[in-house]
Automatic annotation (TrEMBL):
It holds the Pfam family NAD_binding_9. This is FAD/NAD(P)-binding protein. It comes from the Bacteria. Residues 8-170 form the FAD-dependent urate hydroxylase HpyO/Asp monooxygenase CreE-like FAD/NAD(P)-binding domain.
Amino acid sequence: MHRPRVLVIGAGLAGTATAIRLLQFARKPLEIVLLERRHDYRYAGVAYHRDGNPWDHVFNIQAGRMSAFREDVNDFVRWANHEADRSAWTPQWKDFTFVEHGPAPRRIYHDYLTDRVAQARAEAYPGVELTEMDGEAVALGIETGHVAVSVQRQNTETLTADHVILATGMELKQPAFATGVLDHDAFIRYPYSTDGVRRLTATPPGASVVIVGTVLSAYDSVALLLRQGHTGPIHLVSKSGTTPRTYPEDHEHGVIQLPAPTSLFAPYGGRAEFLTRVRTEWEAACAAVTADHPGMDRRIVTERVAKAWEPYLPRVIERIPTDDLHALLRDFSTPIASLRVGAVSYTTSVVEEAMGAGRGQVELVVGTVDRVEPGDSGRLRVRVAAPDGAREIPADLVVCNFAREFDYTNVGSALWMNLLANNLVTPHQRTSRGIEINQRGTPLRPDGEPVERLSAIGVMREGDEIVRNGRTGAFAFNLAAIKNHSIVVAAHVVERLEHDDTHGDLFDEAVALEVKRMAARSRSEREQYDVQLANHPGSGLHPRAAISQAAVRRLTDISVTPRQLRRQLGISTDEEAEYP
């Protein structure tokens, strides 16, 4: 009997969370292959791997929000207090009691996910197995009945799978302002790498440091330096000057209901006019929350409003022309994210104290980094275009927390160039962030046709999260979003594979017939499709109700236009070709 194989490309948070769900959801024999190009990133990714996260790097959100399971909010805290092996932990954390609203070091999340994978493996149904593989996927092709994936290991080999899940994580943008110093001894491009952490911790206490970026990753670098006794000047530089909000000590995540910001549904009248309406609605909403919830800490009012507005934002975004939407996202994604997500005081307090009046060891510089170039005696010069004029900052060390690459036409990996060249994915048209997908996480070709044997998890879904769910900035692909992605994708993949058999996608064929039956306007056509369905092998293998439910999902796919939907369902006519 054929045992289906699912290949998950990427074993960071997104890939690991999805593998766990596959192990939980599968009822029939299934092989899950978890492919990771960097062994130290397995079950961790760049965000949580041990060598890139010293013990002072903590989650920006509270420990109680770090469970990998949406339905079991206390799982991580319970694991950290009662299951974790603390034998190698530092004294600072060895006897620490974790609470929902408190901090936790990021590096232990590597152990948590490792343990939860082992648990899911042990509790899986017979024949449902997880295989770990080291290597890099460099190309894939959809062939009859399977996906062929080229994997670079010692040599390039071909791995076949019935379904492939893309969980490749963040793609870093190469900073144009630093092209001449990327290999300079005083320049750190990857602060969460093993080498980046080593160099940060080896920085002389009196060194002058410039950090490009002012949000959470930049604060991690500053806090690491300060906690090891750094005394030299530190400059934090960014165009927006946005810094993280600090959560109250007893903060708990919550949701409130707010009326729709109705003025934002009016026709778009240009950037300036639109931003005026946004500001007016925003200030009114914040004032209403403050008045209606007098006991609420003022620091979380913006979080509550931003969350309450998310259901309304897709309707607002529909009215913004694409070019203007690109510009607004470019200019305001980081400030919007800072209103939606804060950081625990463990990280922010040490930085804010060093910024405070009377110390000034840490300076916030609002401006755009024009270029970083070699200076005298092995130092670097950082040239900043600021509102009050140009400025040059000499630095013994420059740490680049420059943003990820969100435009996948610029991603340089072999796999993504292959996917784009073969029209297996489409850059997200409305936002230029990530790729086009449907509500099940299936990538769409340029003509809107879903690539049924592929799924996507995590950061590559940013554009879709923005226009579908109103989430912006990092919140579009953070832990909360990934938990939801993993559930939807794993359930979809398991359902699809458990309806397949060794003779092909009989279930999909039956569903296609049911779609045509439902779409038929004439009784005689419907009767013909009824006969075909009654005699189709897929109808004998699967309940008619399951076939009908799947057909309804296809007919109500709102991720494509009605014309694209007809084409992908195979119900368009020759006449429609005259009206593209």
